[in-house]
Amino acid sequence: MNKRHPFNRWLIVGAFAACLAAPAGAQDAVKLISVGELSGGGATVGTNFKNGADLAIAEINAKGGILGKKIEVTHYDSQSNPGVARGLIQRAIDEKPYAILGPGFSGSVKVTAQLTSDAGIAQVMGGEAAELTRLGMKTLFRTSFGQQSSMPKIAAYLVDEVKVKSVSMVWVNNDFGKGGRDTLSKELQARGIKIAADISTEAGQVDFAADVAKVKAAGADAVFVYLNEEESARILKEIRKADIKVPLIGETTLLGQKVIELAGEAANGVRGHVGLTTDAPVPAIQEFRKTFVTRYNYVPDHNGIKGYLSIYMIKAASEKMGKLDAKGLPDALKNLTILASKEPGILMDVTIDENGDLDRDSFLGEVVHGKQQITKILPKLKK
Fold first, then answer.
1. Which 3 state secondary structure label does DSSP give 144?
2. Integer Rg of the chain from CA
3. Helix residue ranges per DSSP H, 95-174
4. Residue 32: burial class (beta carbons within 10 Å; 0-12, 13-18, 19+)
5. What are the strands, taking DSSP E only, across the chain?
6. What pLDDT sits at residue 383?
7. How far is Cα 13 from Cα 175, in angstroms, rounded to an integer?
8. Residue 94: exposed, middle, or buried by beta-carbon count in 10 A (0-12, 13-18, 19+)?
């Protein structure tokens, strides 16, 4: 009998990137390994990240690669399981790549970060939990805001623009959700905002009737929803069914393309902070969206942008060094400012700090008639 081992469920980059990459076994290729959620509950996250990375690789290889060397990438499927992700990261390290991409789930990043740190290999990942870049790892780099950057903006928005005095919080009980809940709770309490209900849900949860009943009973001025994509869509439908009229506030995911597609009319009116979005009024992002849709025939969410940016971050740091040095790459990424005027693939000016956190423009948005609309651009925190 042919038994399927989880580590055998890996995918090699699509034909278009393979054709552009250097020949197999070439010593002068830029070898990347991506570990992401290509199946399981995080498939939307991982597939978008993978496709964004592949698109960037195709673009860069078509222009001669990084410092004249073509990029090769191998994609491994973590199956949205932290244990599988850890095993695959170890496998990736054994293959001595130039850098490792992913995972997207914070819990999977948390259990793999020590491995890449010990190996001295840059890990450019999609996790947003605040604690990740506080773990003391010197090789971990974000592709989006951590919660310590995004949640203060959400709190300020709730106080200054929504004018709330109380908030109900609904969050997914994993590293991502708990990190967001803890960070936002602290920010709200510092501003004198009452947390009327603090509701934990489970990843993959289908029925939200009981949770929504708690939200309605709390009677808060607004509801903050911080779940994964599929669960976000389900709870939005349940909230509309319960005829809850108060503002529904989220952070990036709740206003994302996948949630809008799944929730339909229930997504209309959702508001919040958006760190990355293909609806941003930025010409470079609009061009990225157009190219992505042409290649993959769907509109990407913020995870697609994360994957795309991960490659251009590695490219910019390598060019800063002037050589391909895997051991030197983490230091080259730290305190690096990448200007879109010099590297258009980065889409927006960004600064990577000593801890691997990012500073760049972000947005306030609202879902109107089934489309995300950006209502305000928020500038970088540090000029």
1. coil
2. 20
3. 106-119, 147-160
4. buried
5. 10-12, 30-36, 71-77, 99-101, 123-125, 140-142, 166-172, 194-201, 222-226, 248-251, 271-274, 336-338, 350-352, 358-359, 362-368, 371-378
6. 59
7. 29
8. exposed
The reported pLDDT for the residue numbered 380 is 83
Looking at residue 289, its amino acid is R
CA 55 to chain CA mean position, Å: 16
Residue located via tokens 């947390």? 195
Token pair, residue 192, equals 């004198």
- Identify the segments of the chain with pLDDT beneath 50: 1-27
Per-residue pLDDT at 6: 45
Per 3-state DSSP, the chain is made up of helix, strand and coil in percentages (nearest 5) of: 45, 20, 35
Please give the C-alpha separations between residue 261 and each of 206, 225, 232, 265, 300, in angstroms, as whole numbers: 17, 17, 11, 9, 11
The single-letter code of the amino acid at 316 is A
Residues in CB range of 84: below 8 A, 6 or more apart: 6, 7, 77, 78
- What structural domains and CATH numbers belong to the chain? 6-144+282-352 (3.40.50.2300), 148-274+362-378 (3.40.50.2300)
Residue 188, both tokens: 């709200």
CA distance to 66, 72, 229, 295, 334, per residue, from 40 (Å): 33, 25, 13, 24, 33
